[in-house]
Design the sequence.
């Protein structure tokens, strides 16, 4: 009988322990998600904070470099740091697009006004700089402005996520930060390129057309703002080679230039060929050349719109060559593989002209891109 009572006591104790363990398990199950989420949020915020401090370092370094470089062309009575800070915080307000009629020309007007105002501000800060240097310095300030904007946006979402303890906001910021940091590093390298006047990857289209007419007898004239045409003959064809005017940092108005040439030449134009840098996908080779149909020109779309409109009205075919590169390669000093691609694309352009356009015809070849460090030949 004693052993039976002892067994029953052990059973009650075991049942009590099982009940207690089950209660603890349920308590952890209810509390753990909230506790775990707080730990995870804390970890993500620390990770973002480290990268944000790195971004701030890049931003401050580029700002300092920009101010130092502008000071070389300024006067003692001009407060360059205040002028640069004013430009870094400036904004462009896009036109209303609910009524899309004429949106391209509204956008062009705003962008032209913005570019002229920005350039004039830099010119006022650097009265000792010549015209080509002003162009390059304007690009340098734009790089500093871009990096400043990236930092402020990431800081905004970091502080918002921290303030609201919203793990989903913080998670999204953490997920895109690796790509953002790559872009920030590219901007940092771009500031060196513009400060020293080195060619950048985005200028590969301009470099290609410079090589196309190198050594040829040609006539050069300006067709649009910061945009020139070099007229020459090749294999019985008349080439109108259009590009931005260098070696200052400018992209010109290639769309406006092509439009004016077609309006002036009329039915003589038998083809328009554009050459530009294009964004490659991960895993693709830098400097790879692809051919296509259409206008190879980036930006906000105004210049491409002009080329497409006038070529459609006149029935002129559009041929394009794109040199692949990454976002970082586009705004940093030009790599050897991309420079070699500029030489290779020249031969492919010549081959296309020989196959697609008969002798006696006139062809427009437009090199698209930033001309920093790339002079006239």
Sequence:
């Amino acid at each position: 009988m004693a052993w039976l009572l002892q067994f029953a006591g052990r059973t009650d104790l075991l049942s009590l322990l099982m009940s207690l363990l089950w209660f603890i398990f349920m308590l952890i199950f209810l509390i753990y998600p909230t506790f775990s989420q707080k730990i995870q949020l804390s970890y993500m915020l620390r990770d973002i904070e480290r990268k944000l401090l790195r971004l701030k370092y890049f931003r401050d370094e580029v700002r300092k470099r920009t101010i130092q470089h502008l000071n070389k062309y300024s006067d003692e009575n001009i407060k360059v740091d205040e002028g640069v800070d004013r430009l870094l915080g400036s904004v462009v307000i896009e036109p209303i697009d609910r009524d899309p009629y004429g949106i391209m020309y509204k956008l062009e007007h705003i962008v032209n006004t913005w570019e002229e105002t920005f350039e004039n501000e830099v010119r006022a800060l650097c009265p000792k700089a010549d015209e080509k240097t002003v162009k390059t310095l304007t690009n340098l300030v734009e790089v500093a402005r871009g990096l400043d904007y990236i930092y402020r946006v990431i800081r905004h979402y970091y502080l918002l996520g921290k303030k609201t303890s919203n793990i989903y906001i913080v998670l999204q910021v953490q997920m895109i930060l690796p790509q953002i940091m790559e872009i920030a590093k590219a901007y940092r390298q771009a500031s060196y390129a513009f400060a020293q006047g080195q060619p950048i990857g985005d200028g590969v289209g301009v470099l290609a057309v410079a090589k196309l007419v190198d050594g040829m007898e040609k006539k050069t004239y300006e067709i649009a703002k910061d945009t020139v045409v070099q007229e020459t003959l090749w294999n019985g064809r008349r080439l109108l080679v259009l590009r931005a005017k260098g070696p200052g940092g400018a992209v010109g108005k290639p769309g406006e230039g092509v439009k004016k040439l077609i309006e002036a030449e009329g039915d003589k134009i038998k083809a328009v060929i554009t050459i530009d840098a294009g964004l490659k996908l991960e895993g693709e080779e830098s400097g790879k050349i692809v051919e296509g149909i259409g206008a190879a020109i980036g930006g906000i779309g105004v210049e491409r719109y002009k080329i497409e409109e006038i070529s459609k009205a006149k029935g002129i075919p559009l041929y394009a060559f794109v040199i692949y590169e990454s976002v970082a390669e586009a705004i940093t000093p030009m790599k050897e593989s991309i420079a070699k691609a500029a030489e290779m694309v020249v031969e492919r352009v010549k081959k296309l002209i020989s196959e697609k356009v008969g002798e006696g015809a006139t062809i427009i070849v437009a090199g698209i891109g930033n001309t920093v460090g790339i002079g006239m030949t």
Q: What stands out?
A: The first helix runs from residue 2 to 71.
